[in-house]
Specification:
Elements (H helix, E strand, L loop, with lengths): L6 H12 L3 H12 L8 H12 L6 H17 L3 H14 L4 H6 L23 H8 L4 H7 L5 H10 L11 H16 L1 H4 L2
Length: about 190
């Protein structure tokens, strides 16, 4: 009788990936994303592509693959302007990229003239406004915001972790964890300011 725990695969994948460079991790992530159903995985793809694009030594080919995946996911749910931003970035690097040219829904000369077009990274609201909005959210929703690549993630983190309960008397694990958190607060002023 063979007993197989499917979580062993997850753990093995995590352990192998831990020994790879950031560029290799990005390649593994891109390989995995290319096998997802794009129409059902947009948020997952958005987050994964954003993390890939943050890798400092990411090759131009990998960046193109990442942006193309995100553009397809955005097109699948009707976000044409956002998809065109990725496609335009691809065409800036490789003006003859056939798949990006085929997916382009707005002629290249009209990019930027659309009323709803915002350049990547430009927020619609200031951080102060997002903070005021987040103050009204329940903890459950703040925890969900931690998973998005947006200024709201940082704001949610600050709001969720502004109060920390430390337990030193319960058991050894809780005591050690509390001591570790307290040590981090004492040694890391940026962490303590959260």
């Amino acid at each position: 009788m063979s007993v197989f725990n499917p979580k062993i695969l997850d753990a093995s994948l995590r352990d192998v990936a831990a020994n790879l460079s950031d560029e290799q991790k990005a390649d593994v992530l891109l390989y995995a994303m290319e096998r997802l159903q794009i129409d059902r995985s947009r948020v997952l793809i958005e987050n994964a592509v954003q993390s890939c694009l943050l890798v400092s030594k990411l090759s131009a080919e990998s960046a193109t693959r990442a942006r193309l995946l995100r553009a397809k996911a955005r097109l699948a749910c009707g976000l044409k302007d956002r998809a065109n931003q990725d496609l335009q970035a691809i065409l800036t690097l490789d003006p003859e990229h056939p798949e990006a040219r085929a997916l382009m829904t707005v002629p290249q000369e009209n990019i930027g003239k659309s009323r709803n077009f915002l350049p990547l990274g430009q927020p619609r609201f200031s951080t102060e406004i997002w903070r005021q909005i987040a103050l009204w959210l329940p903890r459950r929703d703040l925890k969900t915001l931690l998973h998005i690549p947006h200024v709201l993630s940082r704001i949610a983190s600050q709001l969720l972790f502004r109060k920390i309960d430390l337990f030193f008397a319960s058991d050894k694990w809780d005591s050690q964890r509390s001591a570790d958190i307290l040590t981090r607060i004492i040694t890391d002023s940026a962490f303590a300011n959260l």
